[in-house]
Amino acid sequence: MNKNFNLTVVYDNNPFDPALQTDWGFSCFIRGAEKNILFDTGTKGSILLSNMNGLDIKPQDVEIVVLSHFHKDHTGGLSALLKENPHITVYLPDFFPSTFKNSITKQGASYVNVKSYQKILANVYSTGIISGWINEQSLVLDSHEGLVLITGCAHPRIVNIIETVKDKAKKEIYLVFGGFHLSGFEDQEIKEIIRFFKKSGVKKVGPSHCSGKEARELFSKFYGEDYVPIGVGTKIPI
Predict the structure, then answer these.
(1) Residue 94 to residues 67, 121, 138, 152, 164, Cα–Cα distance (Å)
(2) How many of the other CB atoms lie within 10 Å of CB of 33?
(3) Distances (CA, A) of 59 to 115, 117, 153, 208, 219
(4) In this structure, is residue 1 part of a structural domain?
(5) Dihedral sign for Cα atoms in the order 200, 172, 62, 231
(6) Contacting residues for 17 by C-beta, under 8 A, at least 6 apart
(7) How far apart are CA 38 and CA 143, in angstroms?
């Protein structure tokens, strides 16, 4: 079974490819599994579809959508995507409101309620709902390099998400990227979190979206060549 993945950030508030639009939110397109996956959908459907087009990703290329949590900067682009391609299965935490779930089926798509750590596809897993200030699920890819953990906002705290993945998957983590929700944190606390990453054996990091400028700079300093700059248009082959 293939364990190579190609990840493309299609929505982020950090710039990377100047030809694409930045906006508050996050979305990542994943090729390499049995089906193509879009993790989160950003805030605005028009920007999501425009950036996808600029990256040569068609709406019809998306077969599965995984939504991390019920905030518009991660769910806002879904309706526009489903209008272009209703043949999508949406994996969402079961606490999403029924009105949102009904809107998915009204557009001709289907959804799967997620509660606990579960397999979505071969080598693709949901962390299940991790409790915190805001409950959230993250996505785990079992690649040939090790586990790849993609977070939406990490509201339940990034350290808790990493601990959950290591406990459930029993494998080493190669890369963690996405929103770490560290904006506004004191430098000392961020450094403690970085030490936790190192102690946990996380090989590479790519903080984006809500991680904050200070966290991005400190992770870059401590991880050096193993720091992955993330912005809209970043492509990560694994």
Answers:
(1) 11, 19, 14, 16, 19
(2) 21
(3) 27, 28, 24, 24, 34
(4) no
(5) positive
(6) 54, 55, 231, 232, 233, 234
(7) 17
Looking at residue 1, its pLDDT comes to: 65
Tens digit of each residue's pLDDT (9 = 90 or more) over 126-182: 999 999 999 999 999 999 999 999 999 999 999 999 999 999 999 999 999 999 999
Range of the domain at 130: 6-237
Place of tokens 């290591």: 166
What tokens does 92 get? 């969402």
User: Burial code of 64-90, b = ≥16 C-beta within 10 A, e = fewer?
Assistant: bbbbbbbbebbbbbbebbbeebeebeb
- Number of domains comprising the chain: 1
In this model, does residue 235 exceed pLDDT 80?
yes
